[in-house]
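Predict the 3D structure for this chain.
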Amino acid sequence: MSVFQRILVPVDGSDPSNAAVELGLRLAKEWTSELIFCNIVDTDRIMAESASVVTGGDPTPIIETMLASGEQLLSAASKEAKSAGLSTRTCLQREGNPVKGILDLAKREHVDLVMMGSHGRGGLSLLVMGSTTEGVLRSSEVPVLVVRERR
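Done. Predicted structure below.
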């Protein structure tokens, strides 16, 4: 039996996230672990940005698009896991801050490992854009495996 019985893999469609999914699939198969894929729609950021954009201030179309995208990403990851014979679940969180959402989900689902991608940004780029991975890494109560995209 593996130390990592339940692995949480946040997905966002980026290359680093896809690399984390790929590694998660390989390790879950080797460790006979359950994979939980999640996608969190960052409504905090969408609301803030929609107030400053010429959209009439209504974030609903953006949120609906992000939800649909999240569903597609989760479906694709789940399909890959199931075709590999792995136990998997998905969670689409419809609102909130991604860092808090990932940490709350990890606690609620009693995960043993969070595996997520990182762009490897630093300096001003990190300050301006923020980093979900950095936030999870700093506050997680369980190990976090950070995966970079292949170059």
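The first helix runs from residue 15 to 31.
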